[in-house]
Amino acid sequence: MPTALKTTTRHPKRVAPVGAPALAQRLASKLVPRLASKLLGGLALGLTLAISLAACAVSQQREVEMGVSYAAKIEQELPLVRDPEIVRYITVLGDSLAGMTDDRSLSWHFSIVDAPEINAFALPGGYIYVNRGLIEKATSIAHVAGVLGHEIAHVTQRHSIQQMRKAQGANIGMTLTCILTDVCASGAGDLIQFAAGGVFAKFSRNDESEADAEGVKTVIRAGIDPSGIPQLFRILLDERKARPAGVDAFLLSHPLEEDRIATTQALIAQQPKELLRGLTQDSPSFQAFRKRLIALPPSPPSKKAGR
Question: Is 0.85 topped by the overall pTM?
Fold first, then answer.
């Protein structure tokens, strides 16, 4: 006879009643980490996608278009010095420097922001802005030429494009909107205020070192003494000790420490001595330009407080 099969009756495991607070806590402990993981994963994917798309999308034509659009916005957002003689001088000086290094035939534009803070920044496509406060703090053409050479290098080496991508990447929504709807090309006020306030993503130390090296070569080719670059660095560091607020905007995006002065001096020392002979350290025309700038009415109140 077949052996009778033994059957086992499975009784459901008794579970102690769970109150509403305890149940909610248990569900939260399981669901929240999963939701957070998915959310962070989605944000990371969005950020990666945004930066990747931005990197692929920026051709030279697009870079120039971005520069034109941002510059138009700056015309509305920032007070610019309009004195014809002052504009002419900074344009001639800037063009003489850019012509020594630009191999992409960009159309360059140089403007002075009527603001007392020490700052300078570059937009993609060849738009360079220097604050009135920086020029008034400088004491020679070599100082201002060094700043212009440095900012020109940020454009020629495409640091400005990379910096703008980082600033956009800090806000995923803005980045995706810029890429997918082209709103940034028509001028995004937030990014303009980033530039004006010097709070774009910081240039990396490599970017700054490269811009310093290119700036040294550019001013030498233009016949100007490159020692103005480390000299101005010293002025800025001294200003940071005496009046930090006046130079903060520049130092936020252009990190500067003592070792950068030494590095730039070493770069200059490596140049052939024959190239350094007879270079211009200052000129009467620069002093006349600076005197005219200082004589203008005081800069208008900053918009920073209302931002």
Answer: no
